[in-house]
Amino acid sequence: MNRLRTQIAIIGAGPAGLLLSHLLHQQGIDSIVLERRSKQYVERRVRAGLLEHGTVELLRRASLADRLDREALRHEGLELRIDGSRHRLPFHELTGRSTYVYGQQELVKDLIKARHEAGADLRFEVDDVALDMAEGDGPSTVRCTLDGHLTDITCDFVAGCDGFHGAARRSLPAGAKPAYERRYPCAWLGILAAAPPVARELVYATHERGFALASMRSPQISRLYLQVDPGDAVQEWLDDRIWKELRARLAVDGEAELTEGPVLEKSLVTLRSYVAEPMRHGSLFLAGDAAHIVPPTAAKGLNLAVEDVQVLSEAFHAWYGSGDRAPMDDYSDRRLPSIWEAEEFSDWMADLLHRRPDDEAYATRLQQARLAAIVDSPAAARQFAERYVGMSRSFAGRGGNRSCQS
Ligand code: RFL
Ligand code: PHB
After folding, report:
1. Known catalytic residues?
2. Which of 15, 24, 174, 269 is the most exposed place for a label (fewest CB within 10 A)?
């Protein structure tokens, strides 16, 4: 049996775990990151693309944004394409904030590079992670298989940053409250294609055949999504079928506006919402997708994960710096208002944009009325823009007492 000691054991080398390890290092706090997959796998996993202004600012403050500032695409608006007609939402003009397109795997590469340069203890291909959590203030143990050896890691705290299917969530005490959860009757098929983007800005298209989203990763690479049936298998979606469907759903006045190219990656995810409340159980703190999931319609998941670990790193800093445990005790209460704000907006946006499988005519007319409000009412457009760029969460996070803000 090998034995290791650290202050914080971090499970998962996704954006949440890696960023937490970086922020803790900057505050002089020691951590070990344990990741089930290989380094190559996590650096290639295609997922998020849209970063909010607040996320980018945080990465800049943490000296992690050099490449992002050179390569990210800054956006000042988006397009709602409603049954073939275009409507631009100038969110920068409405809020003063931009968004940034930068692939999650690029951010993960930047984080791993920064961690390696700082001599961090990052372990990949770690198996059998199991937590033995202390009841009170004593040390906890993470047991795992490292390089083929059974290993016990003794730590003060565990950060569960291992996503929705990870070990941390499964280790919650038997008496923990059941999570809040919603499943949606739709899935997203996502492709990465060597084709120029459909437009300069993101296009969110509602159509009688279903929702489509045209995003990008660079001026040469498109990231495209289609609403599909949750029972569909990726293999049923051959490239020709995908392009045909994208052409139909993204057409403007009946004209297809799409350059096709080789499909580099293809995956399918079912949409769900999930919140594990509270986000702390004794010495175990959940962050990112391990604690909450949103449908990707509003592009909030990664942004929330970044906020979680910022708050968590400050809490650990207060504990190790001055023995102040209040920020650790407040972690969950401090994060949950913002998380629920994003859950609500993501759920609302999913409902606004997806075609319902039951094709209920009344629901479709309600969607049209809601879309018309965003297009026709400056107040509705501004509120939508504030929520899309993440501004509404900056006050939701301060104890959630919005009405007292002046
Ligand atoms: P991750 O990225 O899932 O990382 C968790 C890590 O933990 C590892 N792991 C384990 N390690 C050790 N032992 C175990 N037992 C383990 N089990 C799992 C995993 O291998 C992995 O490396 O969670 P994290 O760090 O919390 O980051 C969250 C984000 O990945 C997620 O919220 C976003 O991808 C969501 N999301 C988007 N968010 C945005 O902010 N903007 C977007 O534009 C956006 N687009 C998206 C998205 C998610 C999507 N999918 C795939 C649901 C688009 C899509 C299609
Ligand atoms: C992406 O570029 O992957 C992306 C953009 C916006 C979303 C979801 C995903 O709402």
Report:
1. 75, 204, 296, 300, 388
2. 174
